Amino acid sequence: MTKEELFALAESKHDIKIGHSIDEGFKIFKKNIGGFLGITVINLMVSSMMGMIPFVGHFLSYFVSAFFSAGMIIVCKKVRNEEGTQFDDFFLAFKTNPGQFILLLIVQFSMILAVAVPAIIVFFARYYDKFLNGGTPNIEMLYSIIPLMLFVLIPVLFLSICYTFTFYIYLFINQDFWTAMEASRKVVMKNFFPILGLLIIIGLLSTLGIIFTCGLGYFAIPSIITAVIYVVFDDVFKPTANAFDTKIDEFGSFQKDLNTEAEEKNL
Q: What are the tens digits of pLDDT across the range 141-179?
């Protein structure tokens, strides 16, 4: 799919079938429930350990979780297309041109962070002296924090929604990370309220699922949400070319070229 064709699809109105997407997402999850639950547990364990590293732990946790999420997306595609899957498939994202994927994560994270920084600066500029002089939080500060939190939360959530399909487009449509981000933004903006409605509904269902299962549903929620969003992506973009295999082949060819070059130098 060319960039022009991708943007043409992204800038079109689509029939986002909320009920159909949720139903198909649950079917994907149920077909590989053991694998999805297993990778979620591994993701939580690894991310928690990464988070304990001083200074950089939370950033490393963010990147590792993103790679595991991409692995879930890859498996969702295989399951829906009735391809054979194995547990190793959840780790394929780690070798799918990881440099570009890390760059995508850095740019996306930086854009979201840039939205939050102004409010943080305003807060500390206003109350720095109070904290410096040993002051304690009071009702005035609480009333000030609430609008500042909304000032941060609303644009951060908006950007996050805009980039809902970025990973999916990057993995399965042979385009660079910036094109994937732009295509995701365009399709969300053109179909904002149906997509927002879908995200709200699966968010509410996820919350109810966690409550009614006494917290055990938490391990299933990431996979189900990923599967539901994959169904929407697949129905909207219908990627025909297997760009994911292309990325794997390119990565393998690159490694092969490096090995060949090293052998020639040794000779």
A: 666 667 767 777 788 889 889 999 999 999 898 788 889
Alpha helix positions (H), 163-237: 166-172, 177-190, 192-212, 221-237
Report d(CA 214, CA 226) in Å as an integer.
22
Q: Name the DSSP class of 89.
A: G
- Amino acid at position 60, single letter: L
Q: What is the pLDDT of residues 87-105, one digit of tens each?
A: 999 998 887 777 788 888 8
Residue type, 19: G
Tell me the pTM: 0.80
Closest residue by Cα to residue 191 from 19, 6, 16? 16
H or E element that contains 162: helix 139-162
Q: How many CA atoms lie within 13 A of 225 on its CB side?
A: 23
